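Schema walkthrough. Field components (list of strings):
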Amino acid sequence: MSPNKPRAYHHGDLREALVASGRKLLEEKGIRGFTLRECARRAEVSHAAPAHHFASMDDLLAELVRRGFAELTAAMTAEADRIEGEAAARLVGLGVGYMAFAAANPALFQLMFSREANRIELEEGEAGAGGIRRLQAAIVEELLADASGEVRQRMVDFAWASMHGFITLVLEGEIGGRDSSRALKSRGLAVLAAMAETVVRAAR
Amino acid sequence: MSPNKPRAYHHGDLREALVASGRKLLEEKGIRGFTLRECARRAEVSHAAPAHHFASMDDLLAELVRRGFAELTAAMTAEADRIEGEAAARLVGLGVGYMAFAAANPALFQLMFSREANRIELEEGEAGAGGIRRLQAAIVEELLADASGEVRQRMVDFAWASMHGFITLVLEGEIGGRDSSRALKSRGLAVLAAMAETVVRAAR
DNA sequence: TTTGGCCTCTTTCCATCGTCAAGATTGGCG
DNA sequence: CGCCAATCTTGACGATGGAAAGAGGCCAAA
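Field assembly_structure (string):
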């Protein structure tokens, strides 16, 4: 009952604790400041304990990436589903969800879309970035029912590139360095609107 | 004259040698595999020698980033200048130069536009990403001479976001994973064309 | 209930890293 | 010609990721 350090062996759910502390640490210090030992420290566990739950540091990072993609697609569909209007509006909604997730988890987002991540998680059924494209592709297909497959593919490229590029540049401080969050949101919406309009116009 | 290891002390131009080996190493191993000691090893110099030319590892990386931005803007203007046609075509040209540089130096490009880089090189007269926006802004201004400042700003956001997002997703393997370089180029050009068309159309 | 096995966690160790301090070497300036 | 400052090396420190070996606790089979 002593509140000092009663828990000795057997943490209970160390795996989840490591995922949680790892995620916080990632956002605090960035990927270069991310340390397995610090994760363990925050979970109040010895530095070698994580090895029993994650084969390596990259394995933990891969788990964070995996969960990130799940959350990201969830955020996108949630935002799109809130809009019951036209397909174009839903396409914008996907972008809003995308950008909101990225803004809330900048370091994780960057990790998810980093060259390093791809060298890591080549396993799994690719529930990652593929799902994002599929979400957009479904709406583009709806908008461009009569267009060729190639036109549709290029419009999906375009839609994804626009929203990804904008939020990426914002997170890096390259766009709107000292703008208010309000102004930034407005600029992001403008980009999404221009994107959706271009997609719609591809139908001739 | 013995070709073994004649050069002992005084490398000659260690700074440049470190920049060169560092750049190669960065592309080979990525930022997470980048090591100051390995840079020194490749320059055939002791592990502490770099300290006399770069205050820290981040200082070397900052130099790489600085040179990267110079090369990137040079590549963009070179490609745009090759085209003497309309402003819209030159806008596409800027994008071609941008993507070509990124494809040729993927790891450096990612470093240049990474959250980590921004924490590093807060010095200097910002000859970095600001120059890129200025290049695009000049052409957009030409195309949208009659538009409001806000419209122009949003079109620059849009132009930059499109080209940045596309090449970024390609480098990460999210777009066109197994496509030929030829096909990828075509898709990139399609994105740039759609982008330029959207900018032009913003003039009403 | 007891006991044996297995999973969890700790301790200890190793190679490597970035950085610092001190010493060795050299080129060039007086 | 000799000395100085710049350049490079050697050695050390603390921190990291990972491997190996041992200690501690849970649970199911007897």
